[in-house]
Structures are given as C-alpha cells and as structure tokens.
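User: Okay, second chain of the day. Same drill as before: sequence in, structure tokens out.
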Amino acid sequence: MTPLPAVRPRRLRRTPGLRALTREVSLSPAQLIFPMFVHEGEGDSEISTMPGVLRHCLASAVERAREAQALGVRSVILFGIPDEKDEVGTQAYAEDGVIQRATRAIKAELPETVVIADTCLCEYTSHGHCGHLHEVAGHWTVDNDPTLDLLARTAVSQARAGADIVAPSAMMDGQVAAIRAGLDAAGFGHVPIMSYAVKYASAYYGPFREAAGSAPSVGDRASYQMDPAGGLREALREARLDVEEGADFLMVKPALAYLDVLRAVREEFDLPLVAYNVSGEYSLVKAAAQLGYMDERRTVLETLTGMRRAGADAIITYHALDAARWLAEGV
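Assistant: Same drill. Structure tokens below.
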C-alpha cells in the first residue's frame, strides 16, 4: 500500500479565509497607477483599439482622477495630446501645454492625488519620434545630446505646473542626469524621477500609438529603445546607469513578456520598481473577454498579481479602476 502523504499543502488552500491568511503576494489599489490621455479639445473621445479608455478633456481628466482617488487609486500618469505639433515638440515644454494645464487642474481639485508626468516628446513632435530627428547614412534616428536639453526643459515645466513625479521615457543616454540637473537648478530638487529605465522596442505599444497619435512617420524607435532579444545584461546595465544618474524609481516596460527582466532588476537594485502593463497587454485581455474566451476579472487580477510577485512595487495599468473595484469586492 502506498503510504499517505504526511505533508499536505492543500490544508492551507481549503477555505477562502485560509488562502487569504497565507498569501505571500498582496495587491491593493494604492499600488496601481492609472494612465490618462488628455487632449486640448472639448469632450471625450473613445479609443477604438483600447475599449473603455478615453482621450479626456481637462474637466473630464479631473473627474476621472477624482473617481480613481475614491477607489483608492492614488496616482495617475498623464500623457498629452496637443492640438499642434512641430519638429522639436515645443508643446511638451510649453508653460500652457496640455499636460501642464491638466496637472494644475488636478492638483487644484485633488491635492492628495500623486500626479506623474510622462516626460517625452513623441506625442508632441510632427514626426512621432522622441527628440531631434536626423538622418545618418540613410537611416533616421534621434540626435541624443540636443534632445537632453528639451527633456530637461519639459521636466522643469511639468514640475513647475505641480507634477509630483516626472517620468522620462525617451530612452536617451544621459536623460536622467540631464533632468536631475535641470530640476535641481530650477529649485525642484524635491521632485523625484521615475525612469523608464528598461524600455523595449515592443509590438505591445500599438494601441498606445493610435491613442496618442504618436506613431513614427519615418523609421522606427529601434535605435534608441531596447532590442527585445537583448538579454538581461543590457537591461541591468540600463538600470544601473539610471541609478547612478539619480533616478528615484526604476521601470520595466512592457511588463507581461518581460517578467524575467522585472525579477532581475528587483534582485539587483533596491529602488522602488514599477511595471508598465502596457496598452497592447490591456487590449489583448479586452478583446479576449469580449469574445468570451477569458474571464476578464480573473485574468486581470492574476496578471497584476504576477507582476507584483515578479517584484513590482507599483503597476501602471489601464485596468486600474476596474481592478480597484474588483479588489473591493474581494478576490
């Protein structure tokens, strides 16, 4: 007769109370960051590739931030959609730019909400790239060093508008150091930098580019965003450089296909770590749920929990408000 097992892990899974008591990984609304697209026109518009996500007018952005706060989601990250674009993204660092105006409006009404400003130029340039564009040997690329000044100017204007955190996402070499120096010189030494330290040239960004109107008109971003096959050493090198330059947070983007990278960064560095659950990851779940292929609630919460288990302290996710509601109902 086969001996019965003395150790029975199932004992601790028997009831919801036992499962809740022994969980190693927690997920709460306070760990979620809600991304919002803000445009300069009137009213809201739907984003066809991201069901349930809107381009907000200023008034609507304030109300959605209020809704998030009521659900326990205390942080938002803002992406601007300007009326006018030019070759150097002037509206990114304009004092009356759409993100600057949205930040002032949200902080005036909801001072406890943490406003994170995405610090980049791609939504503001006529060519859709993240800085000064030039051609080298028949290939279009971004001229790194002149772009640093524009990113620093953008960060300072966002801090002046009241942003609690600036989040550089352009993947320019030296961007954290340039922004840190610019903020400090302008009297914003208290404003932290959430660096998109490990950001891949990913197919998962497709819906975002439709939402923000930021698809490159020439070339692509592979010369400055990371190669998905680059490996862990490049990821750790990028993160280490940002730590040395003064980053206060590190981010891995996208999250779901890069959980190994997220874990490696977590084990190597002790800064707060953010995972970006990006637009394509959101849209895949939405599409499958609409077709009846997956349970949206269970899939979203399992995905976000997986990111937390891999090491994320916070998660940027378009599911944030729905996830907060589901968490309030009990898992």
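The chain has one domain: 27-329.

User: Thanks, on to the next one.
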